[in-house]
Amino acid sequence: xxxxxxRGITVISIILIIVIAIVLIILIKxxxxxxxxxxxxxxxxxxxxxxxxxxxxxxxxxxxxxxxSVEITGIQEMAERNQFSDKxxxxxxxxxxxxxxxxxxxSVYISDMDFQIIDEEGVIGDTYxxxxxxxxxxxxxxxxxxxxxxxxxxxxxxxxxLQYRDNMFDDQPIAIFKLNV
Length: 181
What we know:
The chain is built from 1 helix and 9 strands; from the N terminus they run αβββββββββ. By secondary structure, it is α+β, with helices and mostly antiparallel strands.
């Protein structure tokens, strides 16, 4: 075989592998969405209202590999500010949360990246670099992790909303936590 023919076959093979991978990803994502439309606590609703939870109300998330739960256990406004941060939030919150790997065969890890904070005016806030004492950890089946995150909002609020996504690329949250400050 000539070198040009070998290169052509190699390029075609690579393109074919990429196309197959994309098709598989789309199929797996659709199967996951179909499995999550059964309206159990914490599963993704199919174009219906998203469940709303408060402090100490755990959400059970059903996945391909098992179940896990997420619970917001506390929120307090922080006076402490990071002198090196460029973020100038009106309010900064220390939020405590617990997650438990109920039956998931894969490790579970939940961090501030899985949440979006929204103030009373409907404006999305962001993470804030401040001190925490409990860090999220990867946990295996039967293990519970208590962790903290620091988030800030631009508008003073008495009630904030945390939207939780089990995949940061999902367009809709699985659950919403409404928290009184």
